[in-house]
Every structure is written in C-alpha cells, then in structure tokens.
Write a structure and sequence with these properties.
Shape: globular
Number of domains: 1
Number of helices: 7
Structural class: alpha/beta
CATH topology: Rossmann fold
Strand order of the largest sheet: 3-2-1-4-5-6
Order of helices and strands: EHEHHEHEHEHEH
Largest sheet: 6 strands, parallel
Oligomer: single chain
Bound molecules: magnesium ion
Radius of gyration: 16 Å
Helix content: 25-40%
C-alpha cells in the first residue's frame, strides 16, 4: 500500500531563511524543527525535502554546494533530535526569463515549484500516495504546488510566511492550515493522521 508523506520545503521551514547561502556554516535550523521532524519520523510518515534551489542556474555556486548544504542540514537534524529526511529532491533549474544564466541549468523544468515534478518523482520512487500527503512551505508557490497535485497545503509563518499572509510577498493563497512553524504543522499533521498509521 502506498504511504503518506510529509513534503517539506527547505528555506524558511527547516532552516532560517537567509537568501542564497554561500557558506555551508551559515545554514541554521529553525528552533524546535528537528524535534518536529523526529515526531513525523516516529509516526512512520515519509519525510521528503522538495526545494527550489536556483543558485546553480544563476551561476552563484555549483550543484555540489547545494549537496553540501543538504549534508549539513541532515547532520544538524540527526544531531539535534535523531531526526532524518527519508529523501531529498531539489530543482536546480531556472528558465532564462526567470534569471537562469548557466547553460547547464538554464531551462524550463517540471520540477520547479509550483510544478509538481518533484512530487511525481518521489511518489514513483518511494511508492507514496500524494492524495494522503501533506506539503509544508512558507511561500504561496508551495501551497500552489500542493494543490496542483491534490495534496494538503500547510503554510508556516516562519520564512516568508507572514509576508505572504499580509499580501506583501507573491500572491494570495488559500492554505488548508496556517501554522506558526513546522513544530505546529507537525502537531496538526499528527492529529489528522492519528487514525491512519
Ligand atoms: Mg521556502
């Protein structure tokens, strides 16, 4: 039977939003989120990173730097709470009109949110049931991605979340739940899924 997943945006959800992170040491977890991921792990929910990372396409740093950031992210989750991400997906591509310059990564991609390509890849590779899954993000495009795929969309107020809600960033969105942060979102998800696993 296909499993439910919790898809997690990265910047502003797991780590403190800091723009393009050029130094690996500048990636810091939002307080309390490692414990929240651990609770989702313990419930048997598949925890999956889905992140737009256009730094390589913009020529800011190579894709190997994104991998190094993710190594640190996973290390910090493990160190703080024994938490883990079951899979990590990110989109390094960006179209030229959106700002892509490096030819290797400058193109349209179905993986770039709010497109659903990362969900499709994860569902295929890990036998996930998107209709029973949750997406936690801090941007309207995260909620758009969730709804484009028929998944529950949760907006956190960390990162850009508050600016989205006040109408000062991106566009209006209709999340299924508005959470203070990932810890709050995880509690809500655990309540919603208490009958299941
Ligand atoms: Mg984000």
């Amino acid at each position: 039977m296909s499993r439910a997943a919790v898809f997690l945006d990265r910047d502003g959800v797991l780590n403190i939003e800091a723009g393009y992170i050029h130094n690996v040491e500048d990636l810091h977890l939002i307080p309390g989120i490692a414990q929240a991921v651990r609770q989702l792990n313990d419930r048997g929910l598949f925890c999956c990173l889905v992140s737009n990372q256009s730094g390589p396409a913009r020529g800011y740093y190579p894709a190997s730097h994104v991998d190094a950031l993710h190594d640190r992210l996973c290390h910090l989750l493990q160190q703080e709470a024994g938490a883990r991400l079951d899979a990590l997906y990110y989109c390094p591509y960006l179209s030229h009109p959106e700002g892509g310059t490096d030819p290797q990564y400058t193109r349209y991609s179905t993986w770039r949110k709010p497109n659903t390509g990362m969900f499709v890849a994860a569902a295929w590779e890990h036998d996930l049931d998107i209709s029973q899954s949750f997406m936690v993000g801090d941007k309207a495009t995260d909620i758009d991605m969730a709804h484009n795929a028929g998944c529950v969309g949760i907006l956190v107020q960390t990162g850009f979340g508050q600016q989205v809600l006040s109408g000062d960033y991106q566009h209006e969105t209709q999340p299924d739940y508005i959470a203070k942060d990932l810890a709050d979102a995880a509690q809500w998800i655990l309540e919603q899924t208490s009958h299941a696993v």
